[in-house]
Amino acid sequence: MAIGKYWPHHHQRYKVIFQKALMKLGVFFLLAFAMSTASANTGLQQMDRFLNDLQSLQASFEQSVLDPQQRQAARSQGLFSMRRPNLFRWDYSEPDKQQIIADGRQIWLLDPELEQVSVQTQDTALKGTPAQFLIGGDPVEKHFEVIDIGDSQGFAWVELIPRDKESQFVRVLLAFSENLLQRMEMTDAFGQVTRFQFYDIKQNPSFKSGFFVFTRPDSFDLYQQ
Question: What is the pLDDT of residue 27?
Fold first, then answer.
């Protein structure tokens, strides 16, 4: 009689204890899964996957230039295109039309408003910039100290510190999401920040022949830098 009286109570107590144990175990596995998922998508891992798969790229961009006090000094937008090895093209559409083309040896800057063209050797112009591994295919670690700085604003971030002390920039930040480069920030020695945001990203598109070839208009002045 006593056993029959107390069995339901004891059974319910053990049931509650068992359920709590299962809940704790479930939470543990959820946390473990979340941690393993997060660790599989760190900034460094996303950057490696992005670069390993990269042959060509095209994306619309917005560019902002911030002064050392983080005030916006300039803003522009356009279309960015690149193809390995060593080819890229920036077509600015706003506020003024400009074009920058890297043809593998030289970088050409076309300014239609001023009717002039500037040219510089590619190796000199790109020293200490992400272009060294984006279009050149060099290992990132060859030119930069690489630091995974975690997640922020919905992106996985990587910090790059140029190894060359004479580089144009002292710090580069890359933001990744879904194994694609979404943002890029470059800080120079004076604290000025150039920020790019990419959207409508097309990975490994094809380009027509001559897309990265620059032809100077006859009437434009040429300046060698």
Answer: 42
